[in-house]
Specification:
The complex is a heterodimer of chains A (429) and B (337). Chain A has 429 residues and is of the alpha/beta class. Chain A has helices at residues 78-87, 106-119, 142-148, 163-174, 187-190, 199-204, 211-228, 240-251, 288-300, 315-318, 335-344, 351-366; strands at residues 3-13, 18-27, 30-34, 47-50, 55-58, 60-65, 90-95, 123-128, 152-153, 180-182, 195-196, 208-209, 232-234, 256-260, 305-306, 381-391, 410-420, 423-427. Chain A folds into two domains: 3-55 and 378-427, Urease, subunit C, domain 1 (Roll), CATH 2.30.40.10; 59-366, Metal-dependent hydrolases (TIM Barrel). Chain B is 39% helix and 13% strand. Chain B is built from 14 helices and nine strands. The chains are: A alpha/beta (429), B alpha/beta (337). Chains A and B meet through helix 6 of A and helix 5 of B.
Chain lengths: 429, 337
């Protein structure tokens, strides 16, 4: 029976309200115990990791990742994307189904599972399409997709535009208790846009995407969720108005959760002044007031979790004029550094809340048996050096693409070991 | 000033750039240097008619990804007046239509040993990207709705020729401010030289946000006409909008066209500019476009002087230990990449 002892780290497990220096023992891929309180003595293990000075957390979960396979393997594959996840400290990712073809059948879900098994990297949970062929016209076979293992439903990349279809999706998903992950955008308002509509877009002469494009759709989806009792998860919330709408909805008891992306609490539309398409993403980078509101939302729990919206694009596609370049930014390998630098080192978030946002709550929202170090749980564990200062180098990324605006940035905090099912899958050399 | 003197001159030390990308990031001193140099060239060429040799041996490429007749012709003529060789590169006939990226195209041109690229593109920031990727001088001849620095300079040059110092002069920019690169370049240049700027048009084309840049916002042309020393009438850029920003051209002209009636309420010596192409009957009526106060054709002639100045300042000989030589390649954008 293979045992792994993680000794002397700061164990942060919000699912059990644990935050203390202790040991974690793993046997045969499962967590046995934390500390000496258990019946078995800790001391002899097949492998021991000295975690002194490190954070020992339940494995991080990124619930918004574009792995691009099938169809756009030049941007990313399931193997390269999950290797990037491991390097960034993520033991699980949820992959978004806007592939070519989209993930809207049992066979497509099975394909992802097989590819992920072959890659033998991190866990891949499948988000399947809300609508057949992601066309927004009729529901995909949601029941069969659930049977195949889909954990949530999304037409991300685009909103579910037909309000009646969205209403039906909420109603139908209720019977499986699955959330709809919603891309919140009124397309008419953001048409032709390349960045946030504000003073900077005005000065640069670039077509803007107003905050209202996101807020109006969040408002619609909250109303539809409340009228149906369906579960809404608002993806990549980027506006102060969106945060406020979700806060109010939660107060009313609506079944609403939300995520924010590291770039949306790190950068603003000022970044576009250099006309660099690495700063072009959807939703766009907003203003400092929006950044503040998102951080405030993370602090008070209005925004439940942090997800990266990892969106790889091959270099030749991204190195175009701003209006021709695609939206999207890499996220997996910089997320922990940005979270620690922008949220923890600044005193805005404590470690327990950060781990809750990166592991406990994504697991809860997706209904997956992860995000905890309880005895008997799958031993997905991430070790983070909270003080390690490191320089981002896109050339060293595991991802097939390099579209990150953080190249050359110095960040604090980095995953130093990623353990999946009790096996050390990544160690920072 | 005699041509022989100009031949021996180096670029003034106040000018530190190898590119002209926008007016937003230039200092008032740099803008004045540009305008003074344009005056110099206008005089040295007897009103832009005589040919000089100050850029002999220099090759300038006009790289226009968007249709243009007047700006391209003006740049070509300005370069030839200075003795430079000019190559017109028509983007539509190039490999761009075969899928090559604009950066690859420009790098190919650079490899042929050129000295400067005059670029027009439908996308804001494209000249800035070229400046990052190329080692030759880049001159922005209009990047989408962002800036058109030589148009802004020639408008200001024309005003300065008539009125002298711009401090305290009130200039109304009227029309499609939202989509106008000319408006943006005018605005920055005028504000930096101390003029008071009013932007005027319907709220769908004139955002209240312009106030944050220190200019006045008006939606009532009749109210501002009597206060203006200069009116610059900007074309409606129908090609750049998703939906029409006003109910009809008829209604727009009723509210915002510069007509003889409105001219009657203006100051007697009001100057009227229009960057063109002008739409007679939309932003200006024919009798106003052709009235004595109109500088419209004078603007075109001054365009040559301004473009000669810009080409010389970006490509001309630098004093060995000037700030310009040291600062080559150190434009703010280059640092940002």
């Amino acid at each position: 029976m293979a045992t792994l002892l993680i000794r002397g780290g700061r164990v942060v497990d919000p699912s059990q309200d644990i935050d203390r220096i202790d040991d974690v023992l793993v046997r045969d891929g499962q967590v046995v115990s934390i500390g000496h309180a258990g019946a078995q003595p800790i001391g002899k293990a097949d492998e021991t990791i000295d975690a002194g000075g490190l954070i020992v957390a339940p494995g991080l979960i990124d619930m918004h990742v574009h792995l691009r396979e099938p169809g756009r393997e030049e941007d990313e594959t399931i193997e390269s994307g999950t290797r990037a996840a491991l390097a960034g400290g993520f033991t699980s990712v949820a992959c978004i189904p806007n592939t070519e073809p989209p993930i809207d059948t049992q066979a497509a879900v099975e394909f992802i599972h097989q590819k992920a098994a072959r890659a033998d990297t991190c866990n891949v949970f499948v988000v399947a399409c809300v609508s057949r062929n992601r066309e927004g016209k009729e529901l995909a076979e949601i029941g069969q997709l659930v049977e195949a293992g889909a954990v949530a439903f999304s037409d991300d990349g685009a909103p579910v535009y037909d309000a009646e279809l969205m209403r039906r999706a909420f109603e139908y998903c209720r019977m499986f208790d699955k959330p709809i992950l919603a891309h919140e955008e009124v397309l008419e308002l953001s048409r032709g846009g390349v960045m946030h509509e504000g003073l900077v877009s005005l000065v640069l002469g670039l077509t803007g995407m107003p905050a209202a494009a996101e807020e109006v759709m969040i408002g619609r989806d909250i109303a539809l969720s409340e009228v149906t009792g369906g579960r809404l998860h608002a993806m990549h919330v980027s506006t102060a108005g969106g945060v406020a709408l979700i806060r109010e909805a939660k107060k009313r008891g609506a079944r609403v959760t939300a995520e924010a992306c590291p770039h949306h609490f790190t950068l603003t539309d000022e970044s576009l002044r250099g006309f660099d398409s690495n700063f072009k993403m959807s939703p766009p980078l907003r203003t400092q007031a929006d950044v503040e509101a998102i951080i405030e939302g993370l602090v008070d729990g209005t925004i439940d979790c942090i997800a990266t919206d990892h969106a790889p694009h091959a270099r030749e596609k991204k190195m175009l004029e701003l209006d021709r370049a695609p939206f999207g930014i890499l996220g997996l390998e910089t997320a922990v550094g940005l979270c620690v630098t922008r949220l923890v080192a600044t005193g805005r978030l404590g470690w327990p809340r950060l781990i809750e946002a990166l592991s406990t709550l994504p697991a809860k929202i997706l209904g997956i048996n992860r995000g905890t170090l309880r005895p008997g749980a799958v031993a997905d564990i991430t070790l983070i050096d909270p003080h390690l200062s490191w320089r981002v180098d896109v050339q060293s990324f595991r991802s097939k693409s390099v579209n990150s605006p953080f190249d050359g940035w110095t960040l604090q905090g980095r995953a130093v070991a990623t353990i999946v099912g009790g096996r050390v899958k990544h160690r920072l050399s | 000033m005699a041509t022989t003197t100009l031949d021996q001159q180096t670029v003034p030390q106040q000018w530190g750039h190898r590119h002209l990308l926008d007016l937003e990031r230039l200092t008032p001193v740099e803008i004045r240097t540009l305008l003074d140099t344009a005056t110099l060239f206008k005089q040295a060429t007897d009103g832009c008619r005589r040919k000089l040799t100050v850029l002999g041996g220099t090759t300038v490429v006009t790289l226009f990804f968007e249709n243009s007749t007047r700006t391209k012709t003006s740049f070509s003529l300005a370069a030839r007046r200075l003795g430079a060789d000019v190559i017109d590169f028509s983007a539509s006939s190039s490999s761009l239509s075969k899928g090559e990226s604009f950066i690859d195209t420009a790098k190919n041109l650079e490899a042929m040993g050129i000295d400067a690229v005059v670029v027009r593109h439908v996308t804001p920031g494209t000249p800035h990207l070229l400046a990052q990727h190329l080692s030759v001088g880049v001159i922005n001849a209009g990047d989408g709705p962002h800036e058109h620095p030589t148009q802004g300079l020639l408008d200001i040059f024309s005003i300065r020729e008539r009125l002298g110092d711009l401090a305290g002069v009130t200039v109304g920019l009227v029309g499609d401010i939202a989509h106008s690169r000319t408006a943006r370049s005018n605005l920055w240049g005028l504000v930096k030289l101390g003029a008071k700027v009013i932007v005027c048009g319907p709220p769908t084309l004139v955002s209240d946000r312009w106030r944050e840049l220190g200019v006045e916002v008006s939606h009532d042309l009749d109210a501002i006409v009597p206060r203006c020393d200069v009116l610059n009438l900007l074309r409606i850029q129908f090609e750049r909008q998703n939906t029409r920003p006003f109910p009809s051209v008829r209604e727009y002209a009723h509210l915002y066209a510069m007509t003889r009636e409105r001219l009657k309420r203006a100051k007697k010596d009001l100057l009227i500019l229009a960057p063109g192409p002008i739409n007679r009957g939309v932003e200006v009526t024919a009798e106003v476009a052709d009235c004595p106060q109109s500088l419209i054709l004078g603007q075109v002639a001054n365009g040559l002087a301004v473009r000669m100045a810009v080409l010389w300042l970006t490509c001309g000989p630098r004093h060995p230990d000037s700030a310009g030589a040291a600062a080559a390649g150190s434009h703010p954008h280059a640092r940002m990449c």
